[in-house]
Amino acid sequence: MLRFYVYLYNDDVMTLRSKLKKALPKKLVYYYALVSAIRAYMHDIRIRAYDKVYNASDAEKLKRDLTVNYHIIEKGLTMPEPRPGFGKQVVFNVVDYILRYDRMNLPKDAVMFVQSVSVIKEYLAYHKKIGHDLDQEVQAKTALVTESFPEIDGQKQIRTSRDEYLEHIGGTFDQFCRSRYSVRHYSDQEVPLAVLQECIEMAQRSPSFCNRQPNRVHIVKNDKTKEAVLALQNGNRGFGHLGRHPAGNHLYRVRNQRPARTARKPLERGNVHHDPAQRPALSRAGRLLTKLERIEGQGSGASPAFAHPWQRGGPDRHLVRIPA
């Protein structure tokens, strides 16, 4: 029996697909695309559901929660005027996580553990310095940490002058990485729009997958719009109002285009944020780092903040007039 085999090359397959898409009803093509997308995301969904239900990786989750909570206290300590007694419940959370970490016999030299213990000590030292007596419940809770780990001491929050902060403005890249910090106290000095445009242009030189440049930057100058956008991102509480000086400080709103617009298929969705060929997360992190470096290079400070694109990012699309 004779058998005939037909081999379709990529161009032939693409042509066939294009013809099929045109021939089939759009609703059927839509459902096919929907099922394909669900299949592509199903692995992520399964991992997320399994993690929620079976509580896998207790140690990693503890490290995550410890870091998230101690960072909240860190931010409170860097405010221009920290509120006495701030973050009581968060302090309790951090103490509980520290004690649980200790019971699990996890490494005591890990950064998140050292910093969490150090932050509790710094919290107590700050209130002692300003002469504020914490309530007995807080004192008793924090004593569980200070008495158990008296020798642990990590990095402290930095209060510095503008000149000191910009000391390495013309230094090497290594000096920049070691000297740059998120700034949470701003002056009313205007940052020229031309400086921001130059920062964006420099960041565009950072790698993006196949040079598709998925980032879009929106610069917000209107005070009411800035206030409304910042209200959607609770990570700027206590200092966000300083970015609304009448002198004209600007707010960056950086977004990635939807994966469907920059990726040809669902399996490429992660390439919007990183390209495996260029090392994971280098693309997005590189653009952010370049922006921050250039902003500092022009004599200004900045603090990046994150808003979830679905939970909080929807309203600001309307505020900043971002196309759907």
Structure report:
The protein is mostly helical and 324 residues long. It folds into three domains: 10-54, no CATH class; 58-146, no CATH class; 173-319, 3-Layer(aba) Sandwich (NADH Oxidase), CATH 3.40.109.10. It is built from 13 helices and two strands; from the N terminus they run H-H-H-H-H-H-H-H-H-E-H-E-H-H-H.
**Nearest-integer average pLDDT:** 75
| Major sheet size, sense and barrel closure | 2 strands, antiparallel
- Class by SSE composition: mainly alpha
User: What percentage of amino acids are in beta strands?
Assistant: under 5%
Total separate domains: 3
Low-confidence segments? 4-9, 274-285, 309-313
What spatial form do the alpha-carbon principal axes imply? globular
- The DSSP helix count reads 13
In order across it, which strands form the biggest sheet? Answer: 1-2
Named at the architecture level, the CATH assignment of the largest domain is: 3-Layer(aba) Sandwich
Strand/helix succession: HHHHHHHHHEHEHHH
Please compute the radius of gyration using only Cα atoms.
25 Å
In brief:
The protein has three domains: 10-54, no CATH class; 58-146, no CATH class; 173-319, NADH Oxidase. The protein has 13 helices and two strands; from the N terminus they run αααααααααβαβααα.
Topology:
Elements: H1 10-23, H2 26-54, H3 58-77, H4 88-103, H5 111-129, H6 136-146, H7 162-165, H8 173-179, H9 193-203, E1 215-220, H10 223-231, E2 251-256, H11 259-262, H12 282-297, H13 313-319
Antiparallel strand pairs: 1-2
Helix pairs in contact: 3-4, 3-5, 4-5, 4-6, 9-12
